Each structure stands twice: as structure tokens, then as C-alpha cells.
Amino acid sequence: MNAVILKSHYDAETLASMAIDGLPTTRAAVFKRAKSEGWKFIEVPGKGGRGGLRKEYLPPAKIMEAIRHKAAQKAVAVVEPRRVKVGPENQIPLIETETQALKADARKGVLLALQTLMNLSGYPLKKAARTLVEMAREGQANPQLVAMLKMARDERGRPSADGLPSERSILRFVEYDRAGMLAPKKKERDMSVPDWAPTFLGYFQRPEKPTVEHAYRQFATEWAAKQMATTPSIWQVRRFLDKVGKVTLEMGRMGSNEIKSIKPFIRRTFDTLLPSDVYTADGHRFDAEVQHPLHGQPFRPEITSVLDVATRRAVGWSVGLAESAFAVLDALRNAVINGGIPAILYVDNGSGYKNELMTDTGTGLMARLGTEMINSLPYNSQARGIIERSHQTIWVNAAKQLPGYIGHDMDRQAKLGTFKLSRKAIKAQKNGEAVAMPLIGWPGFVEFCQQKVDEYNNSPHRSLAKITDPATGRRRHMTPNEAWELAVAKGFVPHTVSDDELRPLFRPQVLRTIHRGEIEVFGNRYFSKYLEEFHTDQMRVGYDIHDPEKVWVYDPDGRFICTAELNGNSREYMPQSVMDRGRDKRLDAKIKRLDVKRDAAISERRGAPALEHMESVHIPGFINMTRDELALRARDAIPAEVKDVEVIDVPLTTAQPVVPDEQEWSVPNTPQERWDEWQRMEFEGAQQDRSDKQKKWRQTYQATAEFRMYQRKSA
């Protein structure tokens, strides 16, 4: 029989099947013992008796106790308590830890097993609890029930050799359950703020980011000087800092921009965007030196990148000598050629984007393209994470492949060695030696940049969807080019422009007033006879940053009027393009900075002591007296008689300049020496005899940018 049912009377067959010690195991033997001992019985309807009635006997008390014990053993051995989730809805204190939740669940399971035992055995609560613990210790309980008993025990109580709770502990679980507090309480940390905490944080939360030891030394000195309460130990300070939140702890140590790197953020999705819906652009100063395209000196170029947000494809890029609106213009032109006109351009607040060339409502590039420019918040580079990350992926990794890399993570010794090697090569080339420059040249660098952009567009991007690689059969992320091609296959058509529209579209425009058929743009004067009837009218003038020979004139509505030629109504004039003006301006500033450094170095070498007030005048071997004594002697001095001196006229003779031999004269080495030489020749006049080499140099020097720069400085 699998289960023992507790009741007051049993038939002979049921008693025999229980296999209780001291009780016969056959029906006839049970009948015989009941008759001999005179057990009381009742007759109930059923099979096996006369007249459809059978006898059910009331066993003695000893046998009934054995029956109850047998029922308890069966109940504990076969019971499988179901898991009940104990949560905040039936617990007064919230469950904070996993350990609390496990103990609460185990105690609930123990109580269910206890209730089952009471129902099957008829034992009262205390006896059932004692029986439950005894059977678990004797190995007669289900292993799952034993594990729950061990988990339910509170380790803070008395030690237990077998890990099982006592009878009193189980009765206490019943009390906890009635009060809704089955989860054990957890000792909380003392979160009160000590009196010394604000003073210490005043030394610790500084932008210099001092260590705990450094801040503690300053704090302890002030705290002791004020004769406040006992100075806490550094270990007390460290325990307090462990209780402070990470962001709160860095307040003051990090600025408003840096602290964003540890604060929560919002991830922007781009699933609904189509290619060319949003372009994002930004400039990056290359982390390696290359040869300057004009003079070959080492410098770090500025790279402007344009990415499509939907596909992460690098649709445009440009490389320039410095950050400027023209570099941005060239990158956008490249982007429109490769990807079409964007609906939105998302950029920062740099001068390359916030200028009239880009944003003017009448002549700006954005208005002519029909593109809306959106600027991110200042000091919020996280909002433009796509373009910021591309700098690391494309350009920083590319710079590490060049010999001129000088990034912040470059070994200092190796960086210094590369620097010295390139400067040594420059010096050797100036001296006429044939030495290879270790830095990459400008044409090679431009080709290298295009290669890196192509590699990026053909590499899997983890922000794009996954596909099965047709070559390997493995799952991988799509490349930007694959994402773009997929959009085109689904019907996307980019908003492209023809080559004839592209050139005038990307010509910068400015507003100028027509005066007697003339227009002035950047100091140059342009003329067209077709502008005669537009006198004093304001027109839109487009220009080419590389070609100053002509400009294109449009009316306020954008209709083309004519082309105006440089100095079309005057004699020959030497124009200066916008690029030349920019180079000269940058060269002026560079020379001015070098002059300041030169003056500072000379002052440092010679020394410039401060003027001090001298109370006495001391000239060795002549005078040694105070200023008051010197003034008194000056008053008592007798004026000397001055006699007339005969002035003799000396005839002046013109100095004959020395004409240097052609073999002895050479071109000066420095810019200042060349300018001085030209001034000397100019002062002597054109009639002075000179060698052919001097005459040729004098004519060609006047056409250089260096000559024009010195000429402006001396004007």
C-alpha cells in the first residue's frame, strides 16, 4: 500500500496490509487476534461479511500510534513540496538579495511539508515539527526536503552539526509566515554622513583629481587646526567613499563634459532612415606627419569626413592644410557626387560649419542644396558618436601605419626618434644632400586616404544587420557598401545632380553691390558690360576658390546674368586667388609667432634685469657719493666759459658702390636677408652695374609670396 489513511476503525485486511510491528500480516490472523483480545468493532456495508455487512475494528492505542508513525514516514518520504515564489506582495520588508529570496522560498516549502505531514498523520503542530526534523536526521525524508531544511536555517543562530534547523526554528518559521516576514532580515550599512565628510570632499572633489592620500593629508591638517572632533583615520575615509555613488563621487573631479562618459545615455535607432536622409560630418587632425604639398616640411593635415547615418557609409572626405569652410565644402561636394544630396546635415558648432558660406539664407550652400543643417549641443560629442567613432576606425588606425605617427599612445622614445630623423633629413636636403625623406609625400598620402576609406566601406560594421557571407557561409554583419546596395535594390534612388549642375552649385557665393559695371570680391575688381543697367543693385556673386580670373553673377532669385572678368576694364593686373590670400595670411601669422619666440630666446640668453632705484652714484676711481651730495655739488659748480669754435666745411663725396663679382655673389639664405638684399638693390637704382644672376634674381623675387608679405609689413 502506497499511502496510510488515518481513521478510527480499520477492517482486518487493511490492518494486515500495513505491516506494522506486532500485528499479524494475514486477514485470518487479524480476525483471530481481534476476537481473542476483544477489540471493539462496528459493522458497515461492504463485501466480505454476512448479509452485506463487514466488521471494522478499533485497534488498541499502541497499534494506533504505530499506524500514525507509519503514515508520517510515508508522508515525509514521498512528499514533494511545490516551489512558491515569495515576493513583496506577501512580505512586509522587500526582498533585497538573492540569498533572502532563496531562504524565503525554502521556508515556505518546509511549511508546506509540515502541513502535509499534519494532514496525513494527524499530529499536532509541535509533534509534527519534531517528527519532521527527526526523520530528516535519520535519512527517512525526501532529499529535496532535507535540502530545503538546510537552506531555511538561519546561520546566525546556534551551530548545527548536520546543518538542520531545530524544532523551535521550524515553529518560528510558522510565526514568521503569519507575520508575512519569511525572508530573513539583512544587516544594512550605516549610510549616515559623518560631520567631517563635507570638509574632506572639498579637498577630494577637485579638477586636479588628487588621490585619497593627498586629499587626506590636507584635510587632516585643517581638521586638526580647527580643533574639531577626533580626526578620522584614512581607513574610515575610504570606507565612507565606498558608500558614495560613483557619479556623485566624481562631481568636481570631472567637468560637465567629461562626466557624461559615466552617466546613462540614449541609444539612437536608425532603422527607419533611408540612405542620404542624414549625413554627419566632422574634422579630424591626422595623428601622423606628412610632407607639406607646398614646401615639403612636416605637418599634420586636417581631414574632413562625411558619413551616411543609415548605412554608416563614408560618402565623402577631403584633406586640407588646416580646418576651414573650404575643406568642408570640398568634403560635401565629394559626398554629393558619391551619395546624393542629403536631407539633413548633422554637425557640431565649429567655424567650418557655422559661417555665411554654409548657412546664409540667400547665398549659403545649405539653401542652394535644400539641406537642413542641425548643430549638436556644445560640448556634447557623445551625440555625434557615429562620426567620432569613425575617426578612430579609419584615420587613427591609418595613421599608425605611417612612419610619421605621433599619437598620444606612441612610445615617447620612438616618437622622438622619428621626429629627429625627419628633421635631420630636412636639414640635409637644404644642404643639397641626397637624403630620402622618411615621411610620406602629399600625392601618396591622398591616395593612401582613399584606400583606407574604401577598406572601411567594404568591412563589416557591427551596427548593421547580419547576413550570411556568400563566400564562407558564416553569419556576419553587413558592410556599409552592402547596406547601401541593399537599399538601392529595394527601390531607393539618391538625389544626385549632373556634372553641369555640380560645378556652379558648389561655387561659394557672396552678396555684392554693382557699381558702374564693377564688382569687388576679396580685393579683386571684376567687370562686365552686361552689368551696366544693374548699377547700385545687389547681386549674388559666385567664385571659384582656385581660379580668380572670373566670377559668375546671379540675380536675387538665382537666375544667371553674366560672367565678369578680372580687371575687365583696366590694364593688366596680377590677381591673387583666395587660396593665395589664405596662405599669405597663415605665413604672416607663422612668422610673427617665430619673431616672438626669437625675441624671448634672446632676452633669456642675455638677461633683462629689472631697473632698480640707486641711492648712491659710484664710479670707480672717479666718484662715490649719494644723490643729495651730487645735487649740492652741482649747485656750487662755477659755469665754464664757452668759446666759439670754427666750423670747417668738408666737401662730401659720393660713395662708389662695390660691384661684387658674379662668382662671389649668391642668393641669401634667410627671408630677412633676401628682403634686405632686394632693398639694397632698389636703393642703388636700376643704373647700377650688376651681374646677370643678380638681375634675374631681382626680377623673380618680386613675384614671390615672400616679397609680397614683406612689402605689406613695410607699408
From TrEMBL:
Pfam families, alphabetized: HTH_Tnp_Mu_1, Mu-transpos_C
Biological process annotations from GO: DNA integration
Taxonomy, superkingdom: Bacteria
GO MF annotations in UniProt: DNA binding
InterPro entries attached to this UniProt entry: DNA-bd_dom_put_sf (IPR009061), Integrase_cat-core (IPR001584), Mu-type_HTH (IPR003314), RNaseH-like_sf (IPR012337), RNaseH_sf (IPR036397), Transposase-like_Mu_C (IPR015378), Transposase_Mu_C (IPR009004), WH-like_DNA-bd_sf (IPR036388)
Record PROSITE patterns: HTH_MU, INTEGRASE
Domain Integrase catalytic intervals: 271-394
Residues of the HTH Mu-type domain: 8-75
Signal peptide start-end: none
Record protein name field: DDE-type integrase/transposase/recombinase
Organism whose genome encodes this protein: Duganella lactea
